[in-house]
Write a structure and sequence with these properties.
alpha/beta; 9-stranded mixed sheet; 6 helices; about 25% strand; nucleotide-binding; metal-binding; exopolyphosphatase activity; 3'-nucleotidase activity
């Protein structure tokens, strides 16, 4: 893929908050206002924390809908997960190959190892698996959240120093604080551990059966220079990701351990081959 700096891009948008969510609506509008060709393929309902699940045992349906706030854009409502949306759009719905896939803007942050639960980040990972530069974009969500301001930052990022040129492996997780001002810094970070302490609340239904709600609380973060620590400082964090989960150090360690011949005793009554 060859992209010239400042070129108007063909962009596929998705999310995990649903096709009618404010975050994806504002991002699509701002990207389109800046001349980019935007197509939306997003879940027909809330799919938060769906991870990288895909639909195997039910048919997928993509309904082309009209959004009054996005009158000139092609918008698909898909009865699947965020990863489904990306895979289906790239392989069936689009009549072009996108220059970029963006998942978001998510209503709430996606930080640390908890991105493994995130439908938002997983949709971007799916895009990367299919060979396209991909961004996962999230923002701390309150009534004061300005998704359009965050969207303009994404536009500026796309125009910045040929970031997409010859960089099809680009996979970024971007998190915005609730307030963006002149003092807000953009920091390149690594993943932290976790922002929350998970716990289960146990209750009982009217028939005496126990059930559980997953709950959580903020925890003190000790690590510095991570997406979590910069988010807590009110900065914008950009974390480069990769889809190869191989632990290279363990390869070397295990190769040494298994380089010696391992002799196994056959203590069972099964005869060895040839005996």
């Amino acid at each position: 893929m060859f992209i010239i700096q400042g070129e108007k891009l063909k962009i596929l948008l998705t999310n995990d908050d649903g096709v009618y969510a404010d975050g994806i609506t504002d991002l699509a509008a701002v990207l389109a206002e800046n001349g980019h060709q935007v197509t939306v393929a997003a879940p027909d309902r809330e799919r938060s924390a769906s991870g990288h699940a895909i639909t195997l045992h039910d048919p997928l349906r993509a309904l082309k809908i009209k959004r009054s706030s996005l009158p000139d854009l092609t918008v698909y409502s898909v009865n699947g997960t965020p990863a489904d949306c990306v895979k289906l759009a790239v392989e069936k719905l689009l009549d072009f190959k996108p220059d970029l896939i963006i998942s978001g803007i998510n209503h709430g942050p996606n930080l640390g190892l908890e991105i493994l639960y995130s439908g938002t980040v997983s949709a971007a990972i799916e895009g990367s698996m299919l060979g396209f530069p991909s961004l996962a974009v999230s923002m701390n969500y309150t009534e004061e959240s300005d998704f359009k301001k965050a969207a303009q930052y994404i536009v500026d990022l796309l125009n910045h120093d040929n970031i997409l040129v010859d960089n099809k492996n680009l996979l970024l997780n971007i998190n915005f604080p609730v307030e963006i001002n002149d003092n807000t810094e953009i920091i390149i970070t690594k993943l932290g551990r976790s922002l929350y302490i998970d716990s289960f609340v146990e209750r009982e239904d009217p028939f005496g059966n126990k059930y559980f709600w997953l709950n959580g609380s903020d925890k003190k973060v000790k690590d510095d220079n991570t997406d979590i620590s910069e988010y807590l400082k009110g900065n914008i964090s950009i974390t480069p990701l990769k889809i190869d989960l191989t632990d290279s150090q363990q390869i070397e360690f295990l190769a040494k351990k298994f380089s010696k011949k391992i002799e196994l005793k056959n203590d069972s009554k099964i005869k060895k081959e040839g005996k």
